[in-house]
Amino acid sequence: MNIAMLSYHTCPLATLGGKDTGGMNVYVAELTRHLGQLGIHVDVFTRSQDEHVPHVVHSLGYGNRVVHVPAGPETPLPKPQLAEYLPTFAEAVARFSQEKGIHYDLIHSHYWMSGIAAETLKAKWDVPVLQMFHTLGLMKNQIAQSDEEREGEYRINGEKRVMQIADKIVAATPAEEKQLNSLYQVPPEKIVTIPPGVDTARFYPISQDEAKEAINITCKNRLLLFVGRIEPLKGLPNLIRAIDMIRKSGNPISQHYCLVVIGGEPDASPDTMTQEMAHVKKLCKELGVENLVIFLGKKSSGNAALLLFGR
Q: CB-hemisphere CA count at 13 Å for 58?
């Protein structure tokens, strides 16, 4: 079996930690590796963003490839501009298939722009499309705090189009399944919920004192841990308000909780600090929970999982 995996706007081999490099990159890379273990051939197609990187890279094992497809300038581009090169991308993927003499049995597309490219390839190859969105524009717009954070109609319309042409849509959680149904009216029978897995060779229990030491946490309180980018979609302000509610509950144990936030640059100057990080720090001050919220820079995130799984 051969699968064409489409990850148009971001490469699964990219360095993690940026705005467009995170969970989806890990998901695509690990899914490809595990499919390879099952004897399934996968080619991951992504838009080339660096002319100095080889266009075909064998880094995911089992003969599976990452194919960097030239589509527009081979540099990072804003997402609205990226959409312009989707036809070029789809044509190049079809040409690769023809030149290599490989027939794909399935298209697995990630994020809505990959889904747009999948529509063209589906028509050429007459194969089914399995789609995963990872984030949804209408959901992001519900929590946007400014016009700059709102997704444009080009994305919303694109998502709706992809939902029509996809044969199946994978949701990562029951909540996402409900969002697809309520916000976009996708029929339940078209959605399958498959929770992401965990790499147990990387994430495993260790003693809690060692976990705290690994990320330089010395407080003895019971810890709540947040790891991720500091942006509205992640809901960190809600978690901080929950800490405030616990503190004010009157329960004696409520004073023995604190929140450790790993992400962003908490020590950045006001001029360089992101808008969301500034909002979060201001909220902590207004609620008087500064002593209960410990900020650590995103560079600590590599060890964060130790604390998450500490006993």
A: 4
